[in-house]
Amino acid sequence: MKKSVAKGFITAAVLAIAIIAAGVSAQAQSLQYKLTANIPFDFSVSNQKLPAGKYLIGRAQEVNGDTVVQIKSIDGKSIANRFSIPIVTFKSKKHGELIFHRYGDQYFLSEVWPSGGGTGRAFLKTHAERELARSARDNRLAEVNAPKAEVVTVVAVQQ
Questions:
Q1: Could you tell me the residue ranges of all domains in the chain?
Q2: What pTM, to 2 d.p., does this model score?
């Protein structure tokens, strides 16, 4: 009887440690800590055009987790909030990354990856991006030079 009670306590302690460790790991790969990035081109988030510059990327509201991502210029003049969905990769990110889709000279923020984990946040394509992608696809079919979608990565530093 004493052995089964002791075994139960040990199992509970191991589970508690595992849960705490998982929570710490999840925080490292979430947007709890803001990312800072110097974006060298104008870009779109939602239906907003933001100018090139230095930006903070993180949670819009701490209590709501990573669902709504905020992109805010360091000077506070440009702010965009965007709903996101979780995405996962099997290869951990060594540093934060912002992934953009480029069509000609237009850039659209597509993904945000915090450093230290395999979970990032993705944004659904806006109407404007879908139209550009459709145009690029149609023009390629017609063999006309058109903006071709390209993936551009900007390194972000976690604060």
A1: 31-158
A2: 0.74
